[in-house]
Design a protein that fits this description.
There is one protein chain. It contains nine helices and six strands; from the N terminus they run E-E-E-H-E-H-E-E-H-H-H-H-H-H-H. It has about 280 residues and is α+β, with helices and mostly antiparallel strands. The protein has two domains: about 120 residues, 60s Ribosomal Protein L30, Chain: A (2-Layer Sandwich); about 120 residues, PurM-like C-terminal domain (Phosphoribosyl-aminoimidazole Synthetase, Chain A, domain 2, Alpha-Beta Complex), CATH 3.90.650. Strands 1-2-3-6-4-5 form a six-stranded mixed β-sheet, covered by helices on one side. Helix 2 links the parallel strand 4 and strand 5. Helix 1 packs parallel to helix 2, helix 3 crosses helix 4 and helix 6 runs parallel beside helix 8. The longest helix is centred in the N-terminal third of the chain and has 17 residues. The two termini are about 25 Å apart.
Length: about 280
């Protein structure tokens, strides 16, 4: 991405160069647009739940900036000979989740692809003076994580057929929980900076936030919330390739106590879907 040309335009408050969760464009002194897009392949078997999860993941990128999502557009890829009922279920899942957030899906686009993909392009609003950035953490700040870690490991266990129905339900529940309330709380207490924990895992996103803010983070491993059964399935070998890549990327930036279990590091670098703030 370093070779992508950056073009400076007036009123862009957060753009490509910021590496933020969403872009922000100022319309007037008291109003700016928050815009983001995200889509991915299914991580659960049920198409309706997949639609809900993908929509949650997209909407959360507005919440992390302190914004309010307002409208969205569907983005879908679907096989030419795929079961149209699956596509309908995916879109209905997205519509349901968007409606729960008070967001109107007002259009979209679908293309043929051998692999199913779905997500949203989301537009939200925010006051230009109330943006919560990912480069403004301060020395002495407390670190808060609003969801437990482990969705990547548990999704891998699901693909291997190892996850029971209660664990599947718990996994879907956490990945469909919008970060709306967490965002409102974050804004109310005046958080200095924020990001959400998604593909780069806790350690990857923590590194990004710390580096951009020119601070260091101290994380107490025992205090990090972890989803039930995550440690069990990590021990069982249900680790992701993305987690390994995340670990390789951040290892030179870490100082890890010798008392930390290596499996905990696997969980801390596990890629998350619709993770917490």
């Amino acid at each position: 991405m370093s070779k992508v040309k950056m073009v400076a335009l007036p009123n862009v408050l957060v753009g490509l160069e910021d590496g933020a969760d969403a872009g922000i464009f100022q319309l007037r002194d008291d109003l700016a647009l928050v815009q983001t897009v995200d889509f991915f392949t299914p991580i659960v078997d049920d198409p309706y739940d997949f639609g809900r999860i993908a929509a949650t993941n997209s909407l959360n990128d507005v919440y992390v900036m302190g914004g309010k999502p307002v409208t969205a557009l569907n983005i879908a890829c679907f096989p030419k000979n795929g079961d149209p009922d699956w596509l309908v279920a995916i879109l209905n899942g997205g519509l349901t989740q968007a409606a729960a957030a008070g967001v109107a899906i007002i259009g979209g686009h679908t293309v043929e692809d051998d692999e199913i993909k779905y997500g949203l392009a989301v537009t939200g609003t925010i006051h230009p003076q109330k943006i919560i950035h990912n480069h403004t953490a301060q020395v002495g700040d407390a670190l808060v994580l609003t969801k437990g870690l482990g969705t990547g490991i548990l999704s891998t266990a699901l693909k291997f057929g190892k996850l029971g129905e209660p664990a599947i339900n718990a996994l879907v529940q956490t990945m469909t929980r919008l970060n709306l309330r967490a965002s409102e709380a974050m804004v109310a207490v005046g958080a200095h900076a924020a990001t959400d924990i998604t593909g780069f895992g806790l350690l990857g996103h923590a590194h990004e936030l710390a580096l951009a803010s020119r601070v260091t983070f101290r994380i107490a491993a025992h205090a990090v919330p972890i989803l039930p059964e995550t440690l069990h399935y990590a021990q069982d070998g249900c680790l992701t390739g993305g987690g390994g890549r995340n670990g390789e990327f951040v290892k030179k930036h870490l100082h890890v106590s010798t008392r930390i279990d290596a499996l905990l590091l696997d969980i801390f670098q596990d890629p998350q879907t619709a993770g917490g703030l």
